[in-house]
Design brief:
The chain is mainly alpha-helical and 507 residues long. Helices cover 64% and strands 0% of the residues. The chain contains 21 helices and no strands. It is globular and about 70 Å long.
Amino acid sequence: MRTRLQDMSLFLQFIGIAGISMFVPALYALILEDFLVSRSFLYAGILTLFVVALIAIATSHDERFKALRLQRYLLSLFGAFTVLPAILAFPFYEGLRNTSFINAYLEMVSCLTTTGLILFDDPNRLSPALHLWRAQVGWLGGLMMWIAAVAVFSPLNLGGFEVTARSDFGKFGDQRTDIGALDPAQRWQRSAAHLIPIYTGLTMVLWLLLIILGESGLTALTHAMSVLATSGISSVGGVENAHTGLGGEVLVALFMLFALSRQTFGTDLGAARRESLLEDPEFRFAVFFVVVVPVLLFARHWIGAIDVNEEENITAAFRALWGSVFTVLSFLSTTGFVSAEWETAQQWSGLNTSGLILLGLAMVGGGVATTAGGVKLLRVYALYLQGLREMERLVHPSSVSGSGGRSRRIRRQGALIAWVFFMLFALSLTAITLMLTALKIDFQDALVLAISALSTTGPLVQTASATPIDVLGASAAVKVVLCAAMVLGRLETLVIIALISPNLWRN
């Protein structure tokens, strides 16, 4: 039985997992005596598994679906973010009953890509089982990308691994081995067996700790899932509306650190291995942002507080500083949660905080091989090293860099591919913004929507704009563009190029 399950295509396995996961909200809705929602998920789960079984039987003797090349796993991931949300949207659409299917599809794309785009401003519009389903889909999407980063992107030198790769694009590790000779199924299973217990365990620990602090079970679970998946999905409208207060935000902030570097949960997961977390450039770069940006914001608000004679209010100052630290860390990890004390800083000084700061942090993103989106800290670090070296050569043109071989490789080949990716990201951002403006969306709102989709930081539509953007009231064409942008932001431009590149498909 296990062998037959392993012989199924990866995309078919994704659909099967989606069908099984539908029974969780069905059971939860049954406990709450919400029979309509329970039936919607129960019937959808049974139908999905039935179709998966039929397809599995029909393809069981087809050798083309066994021993697939690793490159085809990219195609399975692309199908997972484009086709699978339609399957996930059916029970959501039937359970909600007061929205269109395109809205349900957009919601599922947003959840599965861990974007967490805020469509329903009022959390009370959704039943508890639907909130659980949104968080569950986002959690599974984060897990899928986490495994894919190790099992697929790493050997293909994609997803940020190309910055530290020692070999050419499309080669594995230090060897010039054809990727097609590797067994992708075993690699996927080995990565899943290693990461699923870590991912699940961290989620359960955060869930239990939030419950101990006094949070309700559903809210604690949705926040725990959202933090580990960096989806920013909440059943109460964000952590600022939770009951755990400052203690809960401290816990959430600690678990957000896992999105800043892959070294926080393991070392044997990528092209580069380091002995200490403090030696990891991604983590150090993230600490730099988390320290410097809040200090600058605090200094700005403190100067503003002098004008209103509030500079001696130590309590308000501390709360304002914590609000900045938490929010900066949240958007840097592309989670998008806003601290309850974020507005305290504005009330303390009377100054508003520019949304451009949050947009910039979301674009930088988290670490490679994590659930975070954005450009990735390692790519930014590579560009920083190259820029620093260029400035040194302006002063000393004949100087020789004293950095090690690894830093030289990141500064040379890594910086080149990082610059290429950054330009592709900028072009994608420009194209998405122009499409949205052509669809009669205000330029400022179009820019915020484009960045939130490409960086997979959906809460930006509520926090980075002067007034919250009504995505639900937009036209169907705008929603299609946003879906495409979220898929592009989650898979990244280089992966899309690899999908259509003939070099990766040749035998």
